[in-house]
TrEMBL record:
Transmembrane segments: none
Record-level Gene Ontology MF annotations: chorismate mutase activity; transferase activity
UniProt-listed Enzyme Commission number(s): 5.4.99.5
Protein name: chorismate mutase
GO biological process per UniProt: chorismate metabolic process
């Protein structure tokens, strides 16, 4: 990584990170599959960049009959990675029994997954099982975009005197198809950082992207927002991985990505400018995405109207309806300081696209007939 950050200077309240001279990187496979697989990956990871070795031992899955992890035997493999390579080790826990077994096998760091964070009862059970621990505990954002639920999970852990806490931003589920597996919705994570400045924020580009291609861009964006580290899934043979094969990368590719990432020192006079600019640009990107999605939804409704008009033999263009829409939009635009000229051009473009959608539906039978 270029211009490596000194986390002790940047995060005075994030003491468990102070031992690292570079931003935190957690690497390793989505799932432990065999002892050999674990040791092969650990041997290929560059410890100049990767400080923590992760592996899923228990894998909460959306559907039954999916691979749900090797279970407790994988903890033995994780301990062997620690003994042979000196890595700090990490795994996910989803209940009190997982906590008990992980602690018995001397796992250093534990994380709580998105499906667990969404359930306060589960979080409470895990928090009580970890009471007074000095282990590092990381909390992934809940599956759904709920900032209070995420903060509440951290507060439940704090209430059990767990001091070494961090958050993992892995994106949020959405039924809409986007380029992401889990929409990052960066603003939620940034709001978390503002409300809980003493909690380190780690980005999980693997789960945000759901594919290998986007990992660098998401990781770079995270550092533009001054995140404290990354969790990136790495496998010695990604295409043959037992879970989440599409989003895992080789250790070699991981090192290429880490070397290319650009960082800024906390005392850089331009750091605030670039951080603020990235935040504002992100808000624009999310607003633009919302606009396009909304227009897409509008066209879908328009298509349904076209079907209804066709069924009842009604003309596509309805002047009185158009006039009412136009007048309402002009008034709405005034509230936001938008000129009548701009609203007129925007609305006419949308209306024209809507008419084209409806016309194509009205003419569909004619096109199909010889």
């Amino acid at each position: 990584m270029n211009n490596a950050l000194n986390l002790q200077n940047m995060n005075t309240n994030k003491s468990f990170l102070s031992k690292f001279e570079k931003p935190l990187v957690i690497g390793g496979p989505c799932s432990a599959e065999s002892e050999k697989q674990m040791l092969d990956i650990a041997g290929q990871l560059d410890q100049n960049y990767v400080q923590v070795f992760r592996a899923g031992i228990w894998k909460p899955r959306t559907k039954p009959n999916s691979f749900e992890g090797v279970g407790a035997i994988g903890l033995k493999w994780l301990k062997k990675v620690k003994d042979e390579f000196g890595f700090i080790t990490a795994t996910e826990v989803a209940n009190a029994n997982h906590v008990k077994l992980a602690l018995e096998n001397d796992v250093d760091w534990l994380w709580i997954g998105a499906r667990s964070t969404v359930n306060p009862f589960t979080i409470q059970e895990i928090a009580e099982a970890l009471r007074d621990t000095d282990k590092v505990v990381l909390v992934k954002n809940p599956v759904n975009p709920d900032l209070d639920l995420w903060i509440g999970a951290v507060e439940r852990l704090q209430a059990q005197n767990i001091k070494n806490l961090g958050a993992i931003h892995r994106g949020f589920s959405t039924y809409k198809k986007t380029k992401y597996r889990n929409n990052p919705q960066w603003q939620i994570a940034l709001d978390f950082m503002d409300k809980m400045p003493g909690i380190p924020m780690i980005c999980d580009p693997s789960h945000i992207c759901g594919n290998r291609e986007g990992i660098f861009d998401v990781a770079q964006q995270a550092f533009n927002f001054e995140y404290d580290g990354l969790m990136i899934e790495s496998h010695n043979n990604p295409d043959e991985a037992w879970s989440d094969a599409k989003q895992q990368i080789t250790p070699e590719r991981l090192h290429e990505i880490l070397k290319k990432l650009e960082l800024r020192k906390s005392d850089d006079p331009d750091a605030f400018y670039h951080s603020r600019l990235s935040r504002l640009r992100n808000e624009i990107d999310e607003a633009d995405q919302s606009i396009i999605e909304t227009i897409g939804q509008r066209m879908g409704i328009s298509a349904q109207i076209g079907e209804l008009k066709k069924e009842h033999n009604v003309a596509v263009f309805q002047p009185e309806r158009w006039k009412a829409i136009w007048e309402s939009a002009i008034k709405q635009g005034e509230k936001y300081g938008l000129s009548e000229e701009f609203i007129d051009k925007l609305l006419k473009a949308i209306h024209q696209e809507s008419i084209q959608h409806q016309n194509s539906i009205m003419n569909q039978d004619k096109i199909l007939k010889p």
